[in-house]
User: Which sequence fits this backbone?
């Protein structure tokens, strides 16, 4: 290609038409030249975006036939095995999609699989952002938007799961209503207003349908657009490397390379979802049968993202329940309120608050565009793993009946085990992770000093065997040397001022707390001070014993 | 950044890889051959790009085209699969679950091939045909300069003063007052979404003398039926025959009135059965049973799943959702799990013909426990 191809006449025409009206040539070029750093972990958010698009498209298709009505009918449709069974119109119309609309079964499964993958990719994407510190200034607001998307996505998924009105989905709604009823003072009112009367009433599917196809998707779409525009404006974070600084981003331009790669990735995401929908059955409502409030099967499992709520409902004991002794007595059901409100509040609240808590502890007000390597922020990484373990244990506890049966463990014993694990697990997870981080930091220092292990073993004249260490690449050296030092302004401020008067800020309880937290946050760190690249003995097996952890 | 980038040293693929940038001088971060420099005339600076060899590009083009052809065939296959299962005179062919399954696999499989083909083709295109390079670009400068901020602030406050909003408190306050009722209006409008709870959650269709149907049937239950039942447990509903509902009873009434009838040897009753059915009542739980048969609400007092599992030997009732466990021989006391209170009990007896009947309503509201459940 020696000459740039002239833009086709039609394209020029369209371009001029638009530019005559919007003056976009300069902005357009700037955006086409937008730089996207390359790393596989940056594609996690893309998966979420693409599955959301698939959800919108497949969802529109499903609305063509779905009837959000709880009128009870006796089924007289094509699926023989349920003929004559009383069911809601919602369930009957879902059967219609499955057994009368060609491709309906596939699109329903695509919609369900895409929902599972949407929430899963959100979670993994959020973890990536958390562990690399990409939530730091200036991106705190985008992090909060992300947390809101995550929360809404869960609610959206739960409501969508409820719409077909099959047995497990109706039971999900029942549990939701049970949790609402436990709210002190207002529980029965909230439930009555949402359900239009007592459970199940005749309105709930219609209302959940509105929330599922209109209100929440509109909110999600708005938040996703905002998330994306902020990302676009602030540009992506990048991992440390040569030339990558807080001032300069290095990567592939939007057009053509990133656009083509991202487009291809959309089709891969769709292919995976379509493949799962073709070959892995999900939510076979025709096998579950319609909802009745009086029947249930054992081994019921919600969609995966509700598992942690289910698990906490299962393992939280009723021993902390109490009754307020006024009049006949008013119950406070901690066994429902803690799992239903406190646990999700804790998880989402901690996620939302962390960027600000960390900033408060460290006093770091700088803008960060170079992401942290997780090992270089051991406390944060440890806390993140503690959060994963907490969530994971609750999630597993949501399947304790299945675990009990599969592994032939007493059902109640699994509950006790999970009660212990949910507290001990995060603590152990934190400690182990932090130690691993510090260990990796030590190895980084060693690599920096001595080069990397080449795999070549030599025998010295003395008979000693050594492994030859080779010099690191410039890139590696740069990355290792750029390890940030974690400090906190709270520790730099003197406890007393020049006149020997105690620093008033540090004396107050919050000041003391901040100092204590700052100490905890910064104390464990493998110092790279004084370490020079390749200053160790290249050809000797290095002797090192200077780590303070040894 | 993963562990270690030492494999960069090998140089085999150095031509394809991005090597770092000099930190100061330029915003270009690519090592390119002089040849590419002179030949390239694309939208980016020549020094920013690194072309693949023509040979490699041609290979890439061919491979990508193969993928796109596969995708095309997949797409055609998808449409063909759709029309492979036309409705028959008897109804849709896919109504047969087996045929429906074939249809699903064919449609989904071809769609997968089409999508994967396009994705793979585009990836090959990006990797083998397009030049590989990275460019550098500055991050936006945050925050604005003090001059810009000052100018903005000055303009904003000047304009606010000009509008009179800051200087004319009467107008400002009345405007805010005018907004308030409108802000509350949407919440007021939601009032009619449902009735107030009132007492309706505390009563069920059970009344004195009402017969019981085996759940899902219209068969009345006799006391002997429980003798013969292999599980020693029958799930039952009030014998209502309301024509408006296929079951003869609304789902709402089912949800609050469904009971478990459990028969056990009378020696197995535990102390809890001698408790009063409710505070201040002189009737005991035992008075509300009939010849070893006891009736409890089937709806768990935790969050409302049916507590449907009954173990005959231990007389335990287990809710499969969250594993609240109740002792049927001991007034349905909670022996394990998260439930707050025992399952409510229904007073039962028999009529002249030997059919089981209710002798009144439950001792407590059924269903999930709520704030005012104890209030009369």
Assistant:
């Amino acid at each position: 290609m020696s000459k740039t191809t002239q833009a086709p006449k039609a394209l020029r025409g369209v371009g001029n038409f638009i530019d005559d009206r919007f003056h976009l040539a300069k902005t357009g070029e700037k955006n086409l030249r937008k730089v996207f750093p390359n790393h596989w972990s940056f594609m996690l958010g893309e998966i979420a975006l693409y599955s959301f698009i698939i959800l919108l498209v497949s969802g529109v298709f499903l609305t063509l036939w779905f009837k959000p009505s709880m009128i009870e009918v006796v089924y007289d449709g094509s699926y023989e095995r349920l003929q004559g069974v009383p069911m809601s119109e919602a369930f009957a119309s879902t059967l219609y999609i499955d057994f009368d609309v060609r491709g309906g079964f596939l699109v329903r499964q695509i919609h369900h699989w895409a929902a599972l993958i949407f929430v899963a990719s959100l979670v993994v994407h959020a973890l990536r952002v958390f562990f690399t510190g990409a939530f730091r200034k200036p991106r705190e607001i985008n992090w909060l938007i992300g947390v809101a998307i995550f929360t809404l996505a869960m609610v959206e998924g739960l409501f969508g799961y409820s719409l077909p009105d099959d047995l497990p989905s109706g039971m999900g709604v029942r549990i939701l209503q049970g949790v609402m009823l436990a709210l002190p003072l207002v529980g029965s009112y909230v439930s009555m207003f949402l359900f239009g009367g007592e459970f199940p009433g005749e309105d709930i599917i219609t209302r959940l349908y509105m929330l599922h196809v209109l209100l929440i998707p509109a909110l999600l779409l708005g938040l996703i657009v905002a998330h994306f525009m902020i990302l676009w404006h602030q540009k992506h974070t990048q991992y440390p490397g040569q030339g990558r600084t807080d001032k300069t981003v290095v990567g592939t331009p939007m057009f053509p390379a990133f656009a083509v790669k991202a487009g291809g990735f959309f089709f891969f995401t769709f292919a995976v979802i379509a493949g799962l929908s073709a070959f892995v059955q999900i939510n076979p409502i025709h096998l579950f049968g319609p909802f009745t409030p009086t029947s249930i099967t054992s081994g019921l499992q919600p969609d995966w993202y509700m598992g942690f709520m289910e698990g906490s409902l299962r393992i939280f004991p009723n021993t902390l329940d109490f009754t307020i002794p006024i009049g006949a007595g008013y119950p406070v059901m901690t066994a429902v309120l803690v799992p239903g409100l406190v646990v999700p509040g804790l998880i989402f609240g901690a996620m939302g608050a962390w960027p600000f808590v960390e900033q408060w502890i460290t006093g770091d007000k700088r803008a960060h565009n170079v992401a942290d390597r997780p090992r270089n922020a051991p406390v944060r990484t440890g806390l993140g793993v503690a959060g994963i373990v907490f969530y994971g244990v609750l999630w597993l506890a949501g399947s304790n009946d299945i675990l009990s049966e599969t592994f032939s463990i007493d059902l109640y014993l699994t509950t006790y085990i999970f009660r212990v694990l949910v507290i001990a697990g995060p603590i152990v997870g934190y400690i182990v992770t932090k130690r691993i981080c510090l260990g990796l930091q030590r190895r980084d220092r060693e690599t920096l000093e001595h080069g990397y292990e080449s795999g070549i073993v030599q025998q010295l004249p003395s008979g000693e065997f050594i492994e030859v260490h080779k010099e690191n690449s410039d890139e590696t050296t740069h990355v290792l040397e750029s390890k940030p030092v974690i400090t906190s302004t709270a520790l730099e401020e003197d406890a007393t001022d020049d006149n020997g008067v105690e620093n008033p800020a540090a004396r107050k309880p919050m000041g003391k707390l901040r100092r204590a937290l700052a100490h905890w946050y910064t104390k464990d760190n493998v110092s790279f001070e004084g370490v020079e690249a390749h200053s160790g003995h290249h050809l000797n097996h290095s002797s090192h014993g200077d780590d303070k952890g040894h | 950044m993963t562990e270690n980038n030492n494999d960069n040293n090998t140089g085999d693929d150095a031509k394809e890889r991005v090597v770092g940038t000099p930190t100061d001088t330029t915003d270009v971060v690519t090592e390119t051959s002089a040849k590419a420099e002179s030949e390239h005339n694309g939208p980016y600076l020549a020094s920013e790009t690194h072309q693949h060899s023509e040979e490699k590009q041609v290979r890439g083009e061919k491979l990508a085209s193969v993928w796109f052809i596969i995708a095309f065939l997949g797409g055609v296959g998808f449409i063909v699969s759709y029309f492979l299962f036309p409705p028959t005179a008897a109804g849709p062919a896919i109504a047969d679950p087996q045929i429906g399954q074939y249809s699903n696999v064919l449609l989904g499989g071809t769609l997968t091939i089409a999508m994967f083909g396009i994705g793979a083709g585009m990836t090959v295109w990006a990797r083998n045909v397009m030049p590989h390079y990275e460019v550098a670009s500055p991050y936006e400068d945050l925050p604005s300069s003090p001059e810009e901020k000052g100018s903005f602030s000055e303009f904003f406050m000047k304009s606010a003063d000009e509008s009179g909003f800051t200087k004319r408190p009467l107008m400002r306050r009345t405007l805010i007052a005018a907004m308030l009722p409108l802000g509350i209006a949407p919440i007021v409008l939601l009032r009619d979404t449902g009735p107030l709870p009132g007492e309706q959650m505390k009563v069920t269709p059970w009344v004195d003398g009402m017969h019981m149907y085996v759940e899902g049937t219209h068969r009345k239950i006799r006391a002997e039926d429980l003798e013969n039942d292999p599980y020693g447990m029958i799930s039952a509903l009030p014998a209502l025959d309301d024509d408006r509902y296929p079951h003869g009873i609304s789902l709402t009434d089912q949800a609050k009135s469904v009971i478990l009838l459990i028969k056990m040897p009378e020696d197995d009753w535990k102390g809890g059965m001698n408790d009063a059915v409710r505070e201040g009542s002189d009737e005991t739980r035992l008075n509300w049973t009939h010849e070893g048969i006891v009736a409890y609400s089937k709806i768990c007092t935790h969050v409302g799943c049916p507590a449907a599992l009954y173990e005959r030997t231990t007389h335990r009732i287990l809710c499969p959702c969250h594993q609240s466990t109740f002792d049927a021989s001991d007034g349905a006391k909670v022996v394990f799990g998260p439930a707050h209170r025992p399952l409510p009990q229904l007073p039962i007896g028999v009529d002249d013909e030997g059919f089981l009947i209710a002798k009144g309503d439950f001792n407590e509201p059924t269903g999930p426990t709520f704030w005012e459940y104890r209030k009369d």
Observations:
- The beta strands of chain A are 35-36, 72-74, 86-88, 248-253, 322-324, 330-332, 452-459, 465-470.
- Chain A touches chain B through 132 residues (CB under 8 Å).
- The CA atoms of residues 310 and 522 of chain A lie 37 Å apart.
